Amino acid sequence: MEDNVISEPCSHKAQPVTWEKSPAQVFWGEIATCDHSVQLYENDKVFLNTLESFAGAGLISGDSIIIIATADHLSSLEMRLVNQGFNMPFLKSSFRYMGLNADEVLNQFVVNNQINETLFMDCIGQSIHKVEKNNGKVRAFGEMVALLWQRGLTETTIALERLWNQLHHRKNFTLFCAYPKNIFSTDVNAGVHSIYHEHHKVIDGSPRPSTEIYYREIA
Prior knowledge:
alpha/beta, two-stranded antiparallel sheet
């Protein structure tokens, strides 16, 4: 690993930040395997590169994968995994890979723009239980928080991040979420820092080599 000093994304006034660099498979499999990581990304290509490394490296390692994302992102990710040579019908039927539509999942536990904790734990807990029966190691990605923030439901977003953390404490799995940078249109610093506070690691969301992860610990 090596240090790289660049400016922190999503800040009105750039501040120097030191990023650690790691091969993607090492980052997900060894460095962040028990963490809740977040990425604020500049464009879909950057995000999908990271998501592909998250899912692909996990499948190679024998982990079971849950991806809760928009329909477009699910389709793009699965196409990338097919191009890597993964047999997606087999992985899905054996519960090694589970792709869920983020809007549909949100509708199962968000009532009147508020999260029902019991429904969340039942919904997400059941999904994790299905995949962990095959292998004790699970990786879960959730894009639901970004959808809530984009709708202006900032308090509900933080509540959902905290519920993910509660579930993460109960079960041993790798957790990753991501937000597009452009949804932070007002009071960006306050928004970003409130999100960062709920995570262990931040992944750089600027264009990088797809085989590498640049990250920093949350102070």
